[in-house]
Write a structure and sequence with these properties.
Elements: E1 22-26, H1 27-33, E2 41-42, E3 46-60, E4 63-66, E5 71-75, E6 80-96, E7 126-128, H2 131-149, H3 155-172, H4 188-200, H5 207-213, H6 218-229, H7 233-249, H8 256-262, H9 268-279, H10 283-288
Antiparallel strand pairs: 1-6, 2-6, 3-4, 3-5, 3-6, 5-7
């Protein structure tokens, strides 16, 4: 699907899937029940899909992916996505809340160790499984479905164990992403920096302020970013602001001034200059191209 045909529709949350913090379904049944999901929308929970058949295109945070059998994608809370299928795809879909594992895992940020679950770059979230791993992962999805039909005793914990098994299978046999994303850093300071940026990018825009929160010097933060990410800290912050600006701009119910205000720019003119410098387009130009 070309950028010119990107749907001009509002972004809406999928709150109906928060019951008991977990949902699993066969993908065809999911689509039939929720046929309104043909517009860009963001989730407040984790969302993963395994395609067993199908064709078409899936877009996550403005990166385009061709749908194929054996493809699995992991979406983290806050990402915006949209799809345009050819024919009737099949597979499995799972949604689970950010709190689903909190009472189960001693280490609260345990899921961050999986590259495909902690990246703000959606190119790291879409993977093509080889045949041996695909068969094992399909088996886990079938067990997850069976758990939802079975006895209630320990159902939640069994579901958590099976989900972790799925993550282990993918991580231990992790293939390359479908397009070239940046590697997810293992350095704990960098991980903490990226979490802080994701939480405060709209109100804290200077690297020095993040360095202070991390109890390191700005020079040390820049050196770590250069070593592990290949760019300086300021670029990470600006990229996150631009990503959110794009997410907001595809919501045509928001004016440019409202987008600027949500991102805590002092005025519309300053936001326009910033956006054009970072992307080569004005906000109006970007919106007109989608």
């Amino acid at each position: 699907m070309s950028r010119s045909t990107f749907p001009r529709l509002d972004i809406g949350p999928l709150s109906e899937y928060r019951a008991e913090d977990f949902m699993i379904s066969r993908f065809s049944e999911y689509l039939k029940e929720h046929q309104n999901l043909v517009f860009p929308h963001r989730h407040s929970f984790y969302h993963l899909v395994l395609f067993t058949s199908g064709a078409g295109e899936h877009i996550i945070d403005f990166n385009h992916f061709q749908v194929a059998a054996g493809q699995i994608y992991f979406m983290v809370p806050g990402q915006v996505h949209d799809w345009r299928f050819e024919g009737e795809p099949e597979g499995y879909v799972v949604n689970f809340s950010e709190s689903f594992f909190q009472s189960f895992l001693l280490q609260p940020d345990y899921l961050d160790f999986f590259n495909f679950l902690n990246s703000s770059d959606s190119r790291n979230n879409v993977l093509q499984l080889d045949k041996s791993v695909f068969g094992k992962v399909t088996g886990v999805f079938e067990e997850l479905l069976e758990q939802q039909r079975g006895a209630a005793l320990f159902r939640k914990d069994m579901t958590r164990v099976l989900l972790l098994q799925l993550f282990f299978l993918v991580a231990r046999n992790e293939p390359a992403g479908l397009t070239s994303g940046k590697p997810v850093p293992r350095n704990p300071v960098i991980r903490d920096f990226q979490k802080l940026v994701d939480r405060h990018f709209s109100t804290i825009k200077q690297p020095g302020a993040y360095a202070k929160l991390l109890n390191i010097t700005p020079n040390h933060l820049n050196a770590l970013c250069k070593e592990h990410l290949g760019v300086q800290a300021g670029e990470i912050i600006r990229a996150r602001i631009v990503l959110e600006a794009k997410r907001l701009l595809i919501n045509l119910n928001l004016s440019i001034s409202q987008v600027a205000d949500q991102l805590h720019f002092s005025d519309n003119s300053y936001f326009t200059k910033f956006f054009k410098k970072e992307t080569g387009q004005t906000p109006e130009g970007f919106r007109g191209g989608i």
